[in-house]
Amino acid sequence: xxxxxxxxxxxxxxxxxxxxYVELVWRGQGSQEDKAALAEFHAEGPELAxxxxxxxxxxxxxxxxxxxxxxxxxxxxxxxxxxVTVASRCLKCWCLEGGGGTQxxxxxxxxxxxxxxxxxxxxxxxxxxxxxxGYGVAAA
Length: 140
Known about the structure:
single chain
């Protein structure tokens, strides 16, 4: 069972880079700049998949499913934490150990976008995670 925090596994620069990639996937591939930026990310192959797997675990645990302190002891909070643990473990396994490359990173980013859209706005989650790095908002 995973016992370390996802924050300890990603440097702030990695978090910003992953947020930039997820935002590019979310916005689509409209402009030539976006297409070029996506191609640059996709050239990383397995490294991209690993980065998105780690970033996904961070988003799921600390942002998408954050439970307010006043509800931390509730049964539903416990169930949510257990679901997040399983989802994060599966996402990381799929991205880190699956030997996946670009396609795995792209599908994982799509999964995270769907999760964010169900709870709130994708742009708000990405702004929050970027702000928490201490480096502010990076340009995509």
